[in-house]
Amino acid sequence: MSRQPDQAEFEEPGGILRVAVDAPLAETFDYLAPSGLSRESLRPGLRLLVPFGRGRRVGILIEIRDQSDQDPARLKRVEAVLDPRPLLTPADLDLLLWAAAYYHQPIGEVLFSALPARLRSPEPLLDEQRPGLQATPEGLALDLEQLKRAHKQRDLLTLLREAPEGLALTELAARLGDCRGPIRALRDGGLIGDCRIAPLVDPAAMAATSASPGPDPNPEQRQAIESVSAALGGFRAFLLDGVTGSGKTEVYIQLIATVIARGGQALVVVPEIGLTPQLRERFRQRLPGPMAVLHSALGAGERERNWHSAARGEARLVLGTRSAMFAPLPRLGLVVVDEEHDPSLKQQEGFRYSARDLAVRRAQLAGCPVVLGSATPSLETLNNARTGRYTWLRLTRRAGRAEPPLIALLDIRDQPLQAGLSPVLREHMRAEIAAGNQILLFLNRRGYAPLLTCHACGWVGDCPHCDARLTLHLGQRRLWCHHCGWSRALPTRCPECQSHDLRMLGRGTERLEEDLKPLFPSASIARVDRDSTRRKGELARLFEAVRQGEIQILLGTQMLAKGHDFPGVTLVGILELDQSLHASDFRAAERTAQLIVQVAGRAGRAERPGRVVLQTRHPEHPLLQSLLRDGYAGFATAALAEREEAELPPYAYLALVRAEAPGEGDALAFLREALGLGESIGEPRIQLLGPVPAPMERRAGRYRAQLLVQCAERPRLQRFLSRWTLAIRGLPRRGGLRWSLDVDPQDML
Ligand code: ADP
Ligand code: ZN
Ligand code: ZN
Questions:
Q1: What angle do CA 288, 292, 296 make, to 5 degrees?
Q2: 217 lines ligand 1 (CB under 6 A)
Q3: What is the pLDDT of residues 290-340, one digit of tens each?
């Protein structure tokens, strides 16, 4: 709409500024530009300090408009512009605005979750920058002949024209000597302007000056590389479906090298960086140019430095966990999501986004390819590949000479178990140890025992705050709740009847380690779980010991299933997955199959073939059968057919509203009202299922309930959710009730 000149109150030279304020509010707010600032100096992505309520808040400028929908007489003025340059590019902003809309999250919270935490307060950027000079558009366009009688000015301008980012004053002085006079002349002529020069990157983050060459790609890898390379410069989504050890990472590296060579930036998101120190090293050795690592375990300062290095376009590769998906990248040329099936790519609290799904959207907005890689792709992504929305690239063979492992089911019903190991598995283990090989045992339960009970009266150690059992950690002599973190000292007698006959039932990794020692007295045994690797560097130390052959038996939780090479491991034993076969969550089968295939993939990576033994009491289970018979692809086909039948993702779209409150029944009551609101919207073909108590109803002292929304059409679901969440926000909330919306929920807990 054009401006209406007769309305004096709209005569606002700076324009109306639409601002997202750092507050849990869905709407944005309009402000007047600060007086004395030209409209040109304001750009979306800048942080502003604005009056808000009775105080002030930091906000982000989203848009400059001519008119406001709000009463212009009541608009307040921005107090200050906090940054010298926008923190987010227009494409970054678009992604975040899209995400806020798609996940129905408060826009300010989404925007600020993408920035280093410190920038939520009105603090300046870490100013490690140096003053410098830059050629202006006039300076760039000038015919240098015009300066032929001012040699020093011409030399200066020539230098600056070759450095579009500008040059530091110190550097100019080093190259040209004192040039204060020419600088003044050129500046007065509008040919050059002041700017800030980015600091030198942390030398530790620099890659080797000459990137070392990698292996020649095999034909499948070459085809994948060529296919993605041909798509550079435009959007296209790829599934890189490659068995463990097939050389997916090698494909990423070669693609990233191409992007870097063309002056672009690449973004690689992985589920958990702490578990894959090798990956970082590999990138660093093989790729030229600085790399920025972004994950939550970094100190705030380092994180912010790396973030700036990405934002300035300096870091050529950004490697990070899911939140790195929001790192500003002005020259983004490729997005890679490794282990795209991994549930930890989904944020499970607050702003519940899927980094994988955002990766695709981000690539679309940036106009670049996105590669989703996995040995066990999620059913959603597989479906996108099957329907042709994503280009399906396959790596079917292991790179190098390694053979794929053989998986065998071991029926343990009626078997005399020792340390939870069947005689056959024990026999295999002895043979491998005798042959000097290594063994990996997978048990997805940490602690000593999952249950402590009194044999006299039947007392069991429950968490007082959750509907959950306490796990016994014998090393610490404590009982821990793995759900809320509550703990107590290990009782020596029953708290109910004072009996001394307390028994530990079941087996976690801590107990497995203890039980293995007498069975394999000559073997050295190492345990990898969250308890044993709490100390910084401990995980890397353990993995190094395994690689050096100092460990014969490596046992642990799913930390072992992720991304590690254990070339000397020739036998993998998977103990007790039966529970997850029967879990109620509709994704349980998919998760279990992925876990089995991922763990199996750790074996026999070098020239030695691997063997995988899966102990079960349900050898006839159709999931296990299809997995063994037809591999992951066969399993996925069967599982997709089931999902289609049941109208579950990827054939329908889900959203889950969760509520929790300290008072019993409050969450359910709230969701019943929400249900009523939802029904009254009257959107057809929307199914509202529930509300029901959450699978673990009480957790950390709060009662939880949930209400599921299902719809076969995504736009319809989105339309419904917009109206519905608005209505739910208006509901009265009793006694500390909290609720949240999870779009595309990954688990139903
Ligand atoms: P993935 O990411 O699929 O697990 P990697 O890229 O880590 O696979 O490759 C597995 C192993 O095979 C690594 O040690 C890697 O160096 C090696 N490798 C990858 N591609 C080739 C190739 N074309 N020729 C020889 N070795 C390769
Ligand atoms: Zn008792
Ligand atoms: Zn608890």
A1: 155
A2: yes
A3: 899 998 878 777 888 889 889 888 899 999 999 999 999 999 999 999 999
